[in-house]
Amino acid sequence: LCTGSTVSELVVIGEVGQDITVPCHYSVRNGNGVTSMCWGRDRCPNSKCSRPIIWTDGWRVTQQHSSRYQLKGDLQRGDVSLTIVDARAADSGTYCCRVELPGWFNDQLINHKVVVKEARISTASPHTYTSEQTSAPGSTSESSFTVTRTWPSVSASEAPQTASTPCSGPSDCLDVTANLQNTSVSLPSQQHPERGLYIGIASCAALLLTLILALFLT
Asked: Which first-to-last residue range defines the signal peptide (predicted)?
């Protein structure tokens, strides 16, 4: 008898790189009623499948366009769901599941709209921690600075090291500052010409006074 084909439509959504299962079942009672069917990449036509990708006679797969299209369900129980392995964006589109039932125009037709979206990727940037060190309260020094000091000519064993690299942290800066404050350097005494002139004048005056006293006594 001609009862007319059954047509329905479903939407299946998946992600790129995942396996997507497009459902399709038909009724099988007590092992009877197992029949052939096909999957196609287009809406179901009046007969067969447009652009067929896989066929089964109800017991095993008889034709397969690609190994990425598989029937993993129990065919003898009417589970002819299509599994798309490692889905790609190009797999999006309309799929036809056509189960061939006895009688004119009795085939069961299901059109599926498959949407394959890009895999969800976190857009958060890697955690980047940026810390700005500030000087202690009441301190006029900056958080990061370079200490450079020129020392007088002394022996290599006594000469302090010159700190010319930026401080890696506040504690390092404090250590460098303390070292600089606690370091004592013997500076060579500077000569004062004025002091020598005064000593010479005093000596001449004393000598002159001694001569005058000697003449007076004579």
From this structure: none
